From TrEMBL:
Keywords for this protein: Coiled coil, Membrane, Transmembrane, Transmembrane helix
GO cellular component terms given for this protein: membrane
Pfam families assigned to the protein according to its UniProt record, in alphabetical order: Band_7 (PF01145)
Residues covered by the Band domain: 55-221
Protein name: Band 7 domain-containing protein
PANTHER family: PROHIBITIN, PROHIBITIN 1
Keyword Membrane set for record: yes
Coiled-coil segments on the chain, per record: 213-247
Residue ranges of the TM segments: 6-29, 41-62
Length: 299
């Protein structure tokens, strides 16, 4: 918007320049035309001076940088920050480049895996022009539209191809996905840096390997889960058996310790303490119960 206003002002000043020459009177003398300076109209030259001065000033708006192109020295590597700058009139030309975050989405990027499978990937790339290296963008592509059309999608696909060619399709769709994204981001960042661009985010929104492959992957995942469950059950059973064995060994050791401590004297002492004074009744060979206490004349 600022650039448009400045352009309009310069156009108005440029149109006022011819008017400034009204201050020069034309006088006819002997059929010859001569010019006579009208000193009172010298102030009419002010628009010309203002036009020249305005051509020496450029204003770079916020969130932008200016790339200077000189008719004498070509493109300058030093960019102009936002604000007011002096340039050489009619020699320098300033190109404004937006440095805010840009975005590109590609829905069907086809890449090949290590096991010769083709997958379709939807990518979203967020990037912005580097303030220091914006001259590379101008020299290579002139505008952000050209950059977005010719570079961003192609570089994203090339980086994905390079990384995915190192992995099988099952790894890409499964546990290696985050690792693949990290490697792609590193490679794409390097490619962008060479073009004067900074990668801010890469998102893989969808990876489609086809119905048959995805079905096979799901079946493999189910089988793998079953194996993991069986292994967990086996380890659990082994743990329980081990626990029981330890408990049994501990109980046997405790009983053995108790038995080793029982002597004849201790057993007799325990018997005497627990005896109620009655003699036991025993069973004879014919099955009759004999009361020993009665035989001995006890009560």
């Amino acid at each position: 918007m600022t650039g448009i206003i400045i352009f309009i002002l310069k156009a108005v000043l440029f149109l006022l320049i011819p008017i400034s020459f009204i201050g020069f009177g034309i006088k006819k003398v002997d059929y010859d035309f001569t010019f006579k300076l009208n000193k009172k109209c010298l102030f009419s030259l002010i628009p010309l001076a203002v036009f020249i001065l305005s051509s020496a000033v450029v204003i770079i708006p916020a969130n932008s940088v200016g790339v200077r192109y000189s008719a004498l020295n070509g493109t300058s590597k030093k960019t102009l920050d936002e604000g007011v700058h002096l340039i050489v009139p009619f020699v320098d030309k300033i190109y404004e480049i937006d440095t805010t975050t840009q975005e590109r989405t590609d829905e069907n990027l086809s890449v090949q895996t290590k096991d010769a499978q083709w997958i379709s990937v939807e990518t979203n790339v967020k990037y912005r022009v580097s303030e220091e290296n914006a001259f590379k963008v101008y020299k290579g592509y002139k505008t952000l539209d050209n950059l977005n059309k010719n570079i961003i999608g192609n570089y994203a696909q090339d980086a994905l191809n390079t990384v995915c060619s190192q992995y099988n399709v099952i790894d890409i769709l499964g546990e290696k996905r985050n690792e693949i994204i990290e490697k792609t981001v590193a490679l794409l960042s390097e490619k962008f840096e060479n073009e004067g661009i900074t990668l801010t985010a890469l998102t893989l929104k969808d990876i489609d390997a086809g119905d048959e492959i995805e079905k096979a992957i799901k079946e493999e995942a189910v089988a793998k889960k079953q194996v993991e469950t069986a292994e967990q059950n086996r380890l659990k059973a082994e743990k329980e058996a081990e626990t029981k064995l330890i408990e049994a060994q501990g109980e046997a050791a405790a009983n053995a310790a108790k038995t080793s401590q029982l002597t004849d004297e201790i057993l007799m002492e325990q018997f005497i303490k627990k005896w109620n004074g009655e003699l036991p009744k025993v069973t004879g060979s014919d099955g009759n119960i004999i009361d020993i206490n009665g035989i001995l004349g006890g009560n």
